[in-house]
Amino acid sequence: MVRRTTVKYPLRILFTFAAALLLFQLASAQVPQLNPFSADLHINSTRSDRGPLEVAGQVYVGSGHIRMNMEGSGHKTALLTDFATKTTDILLIEQQVYIEQKAGQGPGHGPNSMTEELKPYDPDHPCANQPNVTCKKIGVEEVSGRSCDHWEVTDKEGRLTNLWIDQKLHFPVKVVTKDTEMLLTNIRYGEPDPSLFTIPPAYHKMDLGAMMPQGMQHPPQN
What number is the average pLDDT over the span 84-91? Predict the structure, then answer.
C-alpha cells in the first residue's frame, strides 16, 4: 500500500538526483554485461536557479544492479536501479521513504523517464540501436588513473554529452553535459554486498507528487 506522506525535501536536490539518473542511464547502456565494482562519486550541477550544487557519494555496480549513494546540501539519498525490471527506487534516507519509478511510467520528464532505455549496448558503438542519437569518438584519454575512450554523444535536439568510458570496465568514469558533471574516483573491483540493492524493511513507499507543492508535480524543463 502506498502511504500518502508529505515530505519536505528541496526540489533542487531531487532534480539533481534525477539528472544523475540520466547520466547513469547513459552509463548503463554501454555494456552487455556489467563488471562489478565500486567507486566514489562526485557530481557538480548548475541545473538549479539557486546556484551550483555539489553532491558526493558512492557507486556500487553489481550483476544487474546499480546503487548510487548521494549527499548534498545536508540531505542523503540513494538510487537503486534494477536492470531486469527497469525500475529505479529513490530512497530518502532521513525520512525512510522511497519512490518507485518504472520505465514508461508517468509523464515524459523527470526520474521516471530516465530508466526507459535501460538495455545493453555495444561498448564499441555507444549509439547502436539509438536512431536519434549520434556518437563521435574523440580519442583515448586518462581519467581517474584509468584508460578511457572519449565519446561525444549528440541527441536529436542537439544536446551534447561527453562520455569517458573505461576500457576495462566498459563504464563511464566521467560524464559531462551542459549543466552537470559526474566523476568516479577510487575505483575498486569486486561484487558489492547484495544487501546494498534491497530496500530496508523500515522504509515505506510514496508518490513523487506527494513531495511537491501543487503545480510543481513535474521537474523544470531546460
Answer: 84
- Are 184 and 41 spatial neighbours (Cβ–Cβ below 8 Å)? yes
For position 141, what pLDDT does the model report?
A: 97
Which CATH number belongs to the domain containing residue 27 in this structure?
2.50.20.10
Q: How far apart are CA 136 and CA 10, in angstroms?
A: 37
The percentage of the chain sitting over the pLDDT mark of 90, rounded to a whole number, equals 29
Contacts of residue 161, defined as CB under 8 A and 6 or more positions apart, other chains included, come to: 26, 152, 153, 154, 155, 175, 176, 177
User: Range of 126's domain?
Assistant: 11-191
203 lies in a domain? no
Q: H or E segment at 20?
A: helix 11-28
Count of CB atoms within 10 A of residue 31's CB? 18
DSSP for 56-106, written as a single string: EEEEEE-SSEEEEEEEETTEEEEEEEETTTTEEEEEETTTTEEEEEETT-S
Pairing of strands 97-102, 87-92: antiparallel
pLDDT in tens, 169-192: 888 889 888 888 889 999 999 999
Query: pTM value?
Result: 0.76
